[in-house]
Amino acid sequence: MTKHLYSICLLLLVGMLCFSGCTTTTRTSLSNKQNMGNLSIQVTLNQDGTFTYIGDIVDRDDLPRILKKAGASVGRSVTIKAADNVEKKALVEARQFLVYKGFPNVTIITPRIAVSYEEELKPNNQ
Fold first, then answer.
1. In which domain, by residue range, is 95 found?
2. CA of 102: how far to CAs of 30, 62, 98, 112, 117, in Å?
3. Labelling 7: which of 14, 22, 37, 91 has CA 20 to 30 A away?
4. What confidence tens digit (pLDDT) does each residue in 74-124 have?
5. In angstroms, how far is CA 28 from the centroid of its own chain?
6. Number of domains in the chain
7. Residues near 77 by Cβ (< 8 Å), separated by ≥ 6?
8. How would you class 69 by CB atoms within 10 Å of its CB: exposed for 0-12, middle for 13-18, buried for 19 or more?
9. Is residue 115 part of a domain?
10. Is the pLDDT of residue 27 over 50?
């Protein structure tokens, strides 16, 4: 009798695990004020080494303070977009600077430059 009771309990336990599904929450740790719009804060790196944030030019030394005020230190990522003719080395240095200042989630966006060539195909016999 006890063997059947253990089997039934085990069967019920396995059934509950199988049919309960995966429960996850979609809540974030950000407040509603910080959760507005995109979770990434985008800045543009200019050719002279300054940054542009929401249309304002920001000096490199002032950028960490502004990003913290915008909520980057509480979960929002930072995206560095390259302006025209910015060298990749400058982008990497800007990313390293922000990581050093306490922003671990920094992404770099560069313009995609693609070139395609079209040649006229000739038959092998010619």
1. 40-109
2. 18, 14, 6, 29, 44
3. 22
4. 777 899 998 888 888 999 999 999 999 988 888 888 877 766 777 776 667
5. 15
6. 1
7. 39, 40, 41, 105, 106, 107
8. exposed
9. no
10. no
